[in-house]
C-alpha cells in the first residue's frame, strides 16, 4: 500500500478542498478494512491539535431520522424517542421525591388533572407539555429549574426490548443526508490515529475518549457519540467525568454521587435509567487513579455540546482550580500526544480567557456584556425576569479550559447572527481575537504553528484589532476588522495576533449563504459592491461595514463568500 509522506500529509490537512476530502473519506469502508496509514517506518507529522466544531453536526440516527438521506430501517433495539410515564402512580412517585416537595398544592393538582385527561400514559415531551398546557399554560414555565428537570427525570420511561435489553439510540453515519458531519467525525478519527501511530506505528484504530458533561444529562448521548466514532473507525470509551464525579473525587464523597448529580449537574434518578454507566462512575470515583490512566491512554478526546459552564465545572475542582484530570490533558496536548475536539459548548469551553456563556446580539446592544453567571437557558427561552436580562451577553473572565490560546470561541455563529455579540465581547474585554464557527463546520488548529484551516458546510468568522471606547457624548463605540474563511480556507496567526497568509478555497460555496443568512451576508456583499454600508440596528444603533481593499472583497464578488479585511464600526446614532 502506498505510504503518505509528511509533505503530502501537510498538504492534505492544509490545502485540500473539502470536496476532495469527502472523496477520500468516503472511498469504501477504509476504516473497517484497512488504514492507509497502517504501514510506515516512522510516525507522520500531526496536522492539527484542536478540532473546534460550531455545533449542528446533523447525523442520521434513530432519534434524528430527519437527518437521514432516505427512509432507513433501524433495528428493534433502537430508541426512537424519549418517553415519559404520565400516569397518576408515576406522578405520585415523583411528588414523593425531595426535589419536588416545594411544589404547591395547586401545581400538584394541575399535574394530576393533566395526567387524567391525557390520551395515553406513555407520552413524548411535547405531548406532556401539551397535556399540562391544556390545564395551565404557565405551569411548566413557572417551575424552577430543579423542579422542572426533576419532574422530567423522575417520569422518564425505561425502554427495553421483550428480552429486557435497554433500547439505545442508533447511528447510521453513511445514511446521513449531508456529508459534512460524518466527514468531520472521520477526520477527527484519522487525526487521533496519527497521534497513536507516533507511539504505535502499526496501529489501525485509535482510542477516543468521550466526555459528555456539557449536557445536564450526560448519560443520554453516550450511545450516539460512541456509535458515531466507532463507525468512523475508532475504539471508544466513555469517560464519566462531570461536576459530580469531580466533586466526589476531591471531597471524598463518592458515596454521595446521586446527590451530587442532583445538586451540581442537575439530573435526577439516573441509576434507574443507566445502571451500568452510573456504576462505572462510582468505581472510577472510588479509584481515581484508574480514571487518570484512561486519560493517559486515549489518542483523542471529544467534548459534547450543551452548556459550557457545566463542561468547565467537570474539569475544575470544587474550589474552581484546574483538576488533575485537566492537568493530564493539558500536558498531553502540549506534547502533541492527543487531539482534542468539541462541538458547540465543547468548543466554547476551550477558550483561555473571557469564555462566553450566553446572550444574543440584540441583548448585547440592549444590555451590554456582563461578567456574571448567565441566567437559566429556560429563562432565555421563556423571557422570564431575573437579575440578569435573559438575552444579555454574559462571560466568565477567567476563561474556560485554556486549550485554545488565541481568543474567544463562539459557535452556532451565522445561524444565530452572533457577529455583534462577539464584536462587543471581544472589544469590551480587550481580547486579541474572536472566532465564530458556523454549524456543520470545524476550525482545525495547529497550536505550535499558529495555523488554522476550515472544513465543513459553511465557515469561520474572525474578528481582530477590536477597540471599545466612549465618544465625547459618552456613547459607546466598538471597532474591529473581520474575516470570513469558508471550507478549504486556511490562515496563520502572526505575532500581533492577527490573521496572516490567508488563503481562500478556490470554489463557490455549495450552500447559498445569502439565502440562509439574509441580513449580515447580504450586507457584506453590498458593502463590497458599493465600498461602504451603513445599517440601522435596534435602539438606534448603527453598524458600518467598510472594506479595507478591493482585494479583500474579491472572493465575495466572485460568489465564493470568503472575505478579509472588512472594518466594522458599531455606534449609537446621534439624536
Characterize the structure shown.
With 575 residues, the protein is α/β, with parallel strands linked by helices. The chain has 24 helices and 21 strands. The strands form four sheets. The chain has a nine-stranded mixed β-sheet, with helices on both faces.
Short description:
The chain is an alpha/beta fold.
Which percent bin holds the helix content? 25-40%
**Which whole number gives the mean pLDDT?**
89
- Gyration radius (Cα, Å) is 24 Å
The rounded distance between the terminal residues' Cα atoms is: 71 Å
Low-confidence blocks of residues: 1-20, 25-46
Strand order across the largest sheet: 5-4-6-7-1-13-14-17-18
The largest pleated sheet is described as: 9 strands, mixed
Q: Which structural category fits the helices and strands?
A: alpha/beta
Tell me the total number of β-strands: 21
What portion of the residues fall into strands of 2 or more residues? 15-25%
